[in-house]
Fold:
Amino acid sequence: MNGKVEITVVDPSAYHVYQPAWLLIPFRIMHQNEAIRPERSLLAETVKFRQEKAKRIDLNNRVVETDSAKLQYDFLVISTGARPDYSQVPGLDKPDMISTLLITRLSSEKLWEGSLEAS
Ligand SMILES: Cc1cc2nc3c(=O)[nH]c(=O)nc-3n(C[C@H](O)[C@H](O)[C@H](O)COP(=O)(O)OP(=O)(O)OC[C@H]3O[C@@H](n4cnc5c(N)ncnc54)[C@H](O)[C@@H]3O)c2cc1C
Structure:
């Protein structure tokens, strides 16, 4: 972009997690170490990375607040992901149903190690 724009990524996590890997790890198509990469390694050098949480967004003044800074922006992209609420799905509201039906990072790693039995 020839230095015409400044891009800052704000994320409390230093690592990018490739979630579809949780389906591949139990079948040993991918190793768990390949699914988690440093966030910095995926960004262009010109992109600034701040490893901290966006705590507040002031839409009127176009400011994102973190613990250590107030970041002024012209354009803001919010991509904080989804937080599934399984209690909204009839039949999926029991904790044991969730752990047996859904592939998560923890269950896929246990399946890789052979320490979790799929039911
Ligand atoms: C088992 C499995 C298989 C999947 N398979 C596929 C597939 O085949 N194809 C497909 O398209 N999708 C697939 N998905 C879905 C896909 O992985 C997700 O849709 C995608 O990762 C969502 O990306 P995201 O950036 O919206 O959210 P996330 O990847 O969840 O990233 C959200 C980021 O926001 C950060 N964050 C949260 N709160 C704050 C805050 N206050 N301030 C700053 N940062 C914050 C988090 O640290 C995180 O880094 C799969 C998911 C799973 C679990």
